[in-house]
Amino acid sequence: MKLMIAVVQDKDSAKLAQNLVKENIRATKLASTGGFLHAGNTTFLIGIEDHMVDRVKSIIQQSCKAREQVVAPMSPMGASMESYIPYPVNVQVGGATVFVLDIEQFDQF
Ligand code: 2BA
Known about the structure:
2 helices, binds ligand 2BA, alpha+beta, two-stranded antiparallel ribbon, single chain, four-stranded antiparallel beta sheet, Alpha-Beta Plaits
């Protein structure tokens, strides 16, 4: 058994959730925030049998697309100097960042 953790853009989360349900794949959605853009994104926790990992990856790939985002300069007021960006930059976000972890035990009570 594996735990797949997928960080996706909010714009893609409804589509991904729908496509997982369609294929009877269980998932938990968590509201999350990107460390770099400080923008909202969605983290999916998906517990899945080993042989389904590639199928889930391909569903994620089909459901999520990359987008360009302009990062406006952030005020150093209220934000730490470490994350201060003094000029606008273009970053490509997504489609999805996916981690696959081994699960030691899986129980449901
Ligand atoms: P953010 O951290 O807000 O990053 C948004 C996008 O900004 C990233 O897209 C990447 O293109 C860019 N970026 C991030 N850190 C950067 C840096 N130090 N310098 C220059 N550009 C940088 P993605 O790579 O597609 O990541 C989308 C979101 O996925 C991230 O949002 C974060 O929430 C998550 N993520 C990505 N890599 C991760 C990792 N290794 N561990 C945990 N979460 C990760």
